[in-house]
Amino acid sequence: MSSGTLFIVATPIGNRADITERAKDILAEVDLIAAEDTRHSRSLLQYYHIQTPLVAYHDHNEALKAPVLIEQLQQGQNIALISDAGTPLVSDPGYRLVKEAHEKGIRVSPVPGVCAAIAALSVSGIATDRYRFEGFTPARSAARRAHFETLVKEQATLVFYESCHRITASLLDMVDVFGGHREALLAREMTKSFETVRKASLNQLLELVSGDLNQQKGEFVIIVQGVVAEVVQSDLIEVDTERLMQVLLEVLPVRQASEISSKISGIKKNKLYKLALKLKSSD
Ligand code: SAM
What we know:
- The protein has 283 residues and is α/β, with parallel strands linked by helices.
- The protein has 3 domains: 5-114, Tetrapyrrole methylase, N-terminal domain (Cobalt-precorrin-4 Transmethylase, domain 1, 3-Layer(aba) Sandwich); 117-230, 2-Layer Sandwich (Methyltransferase, Cobalt-precorrin-4 Transmethylase, Domain 2); 239-281.
- It has helices at residues 21-29, 38-47, 62-74, 95-103, 116-122, 141-149, 167-178, 202-210, 229-235, 241-251, 254-265, 269-281; strands at residues 5-9, 32-35, 54-56, 79-82, 107-111, 131-136, 157-163, 183-188, 196-201, 219-224.
- The strands form 2 sheets. It has a 5-stranded parallel β-sheet with strand order 3-2-4-1-5, sandwiched between helices. It has a 5-stranded mixed β-sheet with strand order 6-7-10-8-9.
- The structure holds S-adenosylmethionine.
- The site of S-adenosylmethionine has 24 residues, from helix 5, strand 7, strand 8 and strand 10.
């Protein structure tokens, strides 16, 4: 018997009209829908008049549930995976199921649609040619700051997910670590009644959110501009390779001096070996 297909189906992030015709067709046609929260998804499916049976698949049962779903797929059933909002597996459950499906040679097919990160990028007016999706920030401030520190020199645009519990604290840490003048975008409650899309400096976004309780409610994407190339350049310390080699040769043999200066400068070892020999002979 040939296996069924595992469809990964995107659902809306707020406005229920944001779903594709194909997504509705697939959800109505499959044998089973695996959903993160069956109560939440039942109400969405009722809205579209879809009566396909639902089964729970979330972070806490995926180790148990994935093998069961894989077996059903192997028996020829078609299954759709959905999450509470947007695209499954994007900061949402599904990784184990998709990985195991590939390992078992089961067809995995996307039914693409909304994703909060992409929606926010599309309205950001910040470079989208290169972006780095960071998902949720660490819950504790010390870990969050340490994480932001690792991103301070990132040139690609940064994309973060944030919840209402941490939005103010997270923006405060961003101001401290990235600097208050960094350009950013706050996308709150996208596609819902009280949507906020605001492009401003991190300082201004912190002011907006901390000064208005309504702006602290809901779901958030924060986009932060990457550091501009010239800033990174000016931070780099130029190494005078010939001078470095002269100093190393005072205490080290030629081979070792070439190896170390190659590691520091990134220049090929044999090229530096020749330079070392030349410097030695002109002593
Ligand atoms: N899988 C989803 C996707 O494709 O974007 C993301 C799921 S993740 C559990 C939920 C987070 O996505 C929220 O905390 C928020 O950061 C972001 N998000 C989801 N819906 C949003 C919306 N309507 N407006 C702003 N951010 C949203």
